[in-house]
Design goal:
Radius of gyration: 23 Å
Order of helices and strands: HHEEHHHHEEEHEHHHEHEEEHH
Distance between the termini: 67 Å
Largest sheet: 6 strands, mixed
CATH architecture of the largest domain: 3-Layer(aba) Sandwich
CATH class of the largest domain: Alpha Beta
Number of strands: 10
CATH topology of the largest domain: Rossmann fold
Shape: globular
Structural class: alpha/beta
Number of domains: 3
Helix content: 40-55%
Number of helices: 13
Length: about 350
Amino acid sequence: MNPAARFLNPSEAARQLGISTKALRLYEQRGLITPGRTSAGWRAYGPAEIARAADIVELRALGISLSEIARIFAGDIQTLDWTLATHRVVLEDRIRELSHAIGKIGRMRADLSRGEVPGARELIRLLKPTPDISVTFCLPWPWGGELFELRDIRSLNYIVGPLGSGKTQFAKRLAAALPNAAFVGLERLANEAEAAWASLDADLALKYRVDRSLAAIMRDGGGESSALLALLTALETKDHPVLVIDMLEQGLDASTQEALIIHLRRRGPTATPLFFLTRSSAVLDLECVGADEAIILCPANHSPPSLVIPYQGSPGYEAVATCLASPDVRARTEGMVAHLPAR
C-alpha cells in the first residue's frame, strides 16, 4: 500500500459511495474491484478502488447490470453497443412521452384562448410525470372487509407475506380492482412451453418482444427455460397493461431470478405498474430496492396490508426480511407446509 494515500475500511467506503457494505462485497465477488488488505488482513479501499466503485455505482444508477459492467470494463464492444442501443430506446420512449405532453399542452392553450379553462385534476394529470393510478377496495377473506387504499403506485410493487397470510387472495382482489389489470397465476406453469410457443407463433410482434427480453436476461446471466418463456409471454402481452403475478420466481433458478429483476428495473419509473408476489431474496433484495419500487406486506396476524420502507428499523422491515429466503432454500423447501401432528 502507498502510505501517503488515504485508505478506507468497508464502512467508510460504503458511506462515502452512498451504498451498503453488502454492495461493496458483491462488487468484489464479481471481480469488479480488488481492495487491498491491512497487515491484519482487513479490507482497505484506496483512491483507485473508490474511483472504480464510484463508476460502478453511477453505471448501476443508469440501469446497467453488474455483468454488463464487467464486460464494459473489459472493453467488450458488443456489450457497449447493446448498452447504447438500450439507452437509445429509453430516450426514444421519453421523447414520445414528451411529444404527447407537448401536444396536450398545445391543445390546452388553444382551449384557453377560447375561454375554456381546464379543471385542476386535468392539469395535475398533464403535469405529473408518473401515471396517476390509485386503487381502493374492501379486503377479502381472511380479512374482515376492511377498506384498503393504495396511492402513488410505483413501477415495481412487491407483495410479501408468510404462509397463510392471505397474500394470494389480496393479489387477486387487487387485480380485480385495478383498471384493466389481470392476475397471472401459477397455472402458467402447466404446459407452459406449448401454450407460450403457440401464442408466439400467432403473434410475431409479441414474439419479437419476448425474444428481445429473453436475450437481455440471458446477457445478464439468466438461463432459458419454459417457465421463463411463459412468464415473459405474459409480461409482453399487451391485453392488460397492469399485471399482478403470483410467485414471480416460480420455476426459475437463482441466476435467472437475479437477471429478471434487473431486466424489470430497466423499464424505468414511468413504466406501467407491475405487481408480483415473491418470497425470494434474489427477487426482493432489501439492499437494492429503488425509489420507484414499493413493498406491500400482508402480516401473519391478518391486520391490513401495509407499505414497508426498506430500511432497517422501519415498521414491518423485519417481518418482510423473515418472509424471504435464498433461491436454494426456496427450492429445497418448495411445497412443504409446517404443521403439528394430529393427537
